[in-house]
């Protein structure tokens, strides 16, 4: 009996030793995964250098470390746009030129050299493969007798020789030009563009092919400064229709079918005409004004379910709202509320529950340029400090914790935060 028991215990010990040896060898051959790459933002900061004031481009980790300048010798204007793979950052310099630069500041390349024009405005959108981008340039023709222009370009990121003009159409003037009567509005993948011509909505591929008239009845599709807004999945376009300010929200499929009226508020007088698609393309958020409110002081934030067409009052507390932004997972809305320079920052679930104030320790001030991280866990925002007459850039967690100031005393003003895709 004793011998059997001894043999049994020996077998158990040998099995345990074999198991531990196998586990050790497995762990040794598969080292622990590397620490996740820190989240990074690009932003602009106005600084005084050698007697000159210049807007410069920076990148910084979301924890406030590893700040670096990406284009030290350039005046950077706006239109920061990361490629989907996070490798390239495109930006506008001097209101005329477009550059790209790697995330580490290497390979600075001029992609477009333009001339100056009245009230120039650029919008840059990358292709999904990160190998090219499209951009639209608007030169104002609506506020003068001389016509302006709307131009569409594509670039393969190889430099100026790889950038091609697709369309250059005149707009405005006296008598008004009819080639186009709006800006070019790019889809999220940079493959298509929508615009208004002869009071109808058209779309076109960004290589100039496939021009298609979507609407069949002439209308006021971009009156009052409203825009054509592509859904993130690129299947629909949303817009306000009607004479400003009494307009209603519509959508249309990108093949021209299913023109659908989503709101029917004849007494509504729109003050802020921006439309905000949720990233999953299921809802559109917008500012709703009470009848007679032309100053935006009696607003609520509404969201329309695209499938049901039912609008929902999210905030249910009429006041002034601004800087509305969806989280990337489409579950939370962030916004500022209060009079200008006396604003607070909040988040709220998309169903109207769980209102949370962010950064309550900051004094009341102007809040703008909200930007959600790609994992929906953090928000970057610009905070205008009245006493110091400057703006600073902050990052805060979605639950209100972890407030970090990203700018320093050398930054006179800062803003335009854009998260690097991960």
Walk me through the structure:
- With 422 residues, this protein is mainly β.
- The longest helix has 28 residues.
Q: What is the end-to-end distance?
A: 65 Å
Give the proportion of residues in helices.
under 10%
What is the CATH architecture annotation of the domain at 70-218? Answer: 7 Propeller
Please list the strands of the largest sheet in the order they lie side by side: 3-2-1-32
Number of strands: 32
Q: CATH superfamily of the domain at 70-218, called what? A: Prolyl oligopeptidase, N-terminal domain
Write the layout of secondary structure elements.
Elements: H1 2-29, E1 40-49, E2 52-61, E3 68-69, E4 81-82, E5 88-93, E6 97-102, E7 109-113, E8 121-126, E9 133-139, E10 148-155, E11 163-171, E12 185-186, E13 192-197, E14 200-205, E15 212-213, E16 229-230, E17 236-241, E18 248-253, E19 260-261, E20 275-277, E21 283-289, E22 299-305, E23 311-313, E24 321-326, E25 332-337, E26 344-349, E27 356-358, E28 366-372, E29 378-385, E30 390-397, E31 404-405, E32 413-419
Antiparallel strand pairs: 1-2, 1-32, 2-3, 4-5, 5-6, 6-7, 8-9, 9-10, 10-11, 12-13, 13-14, 14-15, 16-17, 17-18, 18-19, 20-21, 21-22, 22-23, 24-25, 25-26, 26-27, 28-29, 29-30, 30-31
Primary descriptors:
four-stranded antiparallel beta sheet, 7% helix, 422 residues, Methylamine Dehydrogenase, Chain H, mainly beta, globular, 42% strand, 32 strands, 1 helix, single chain
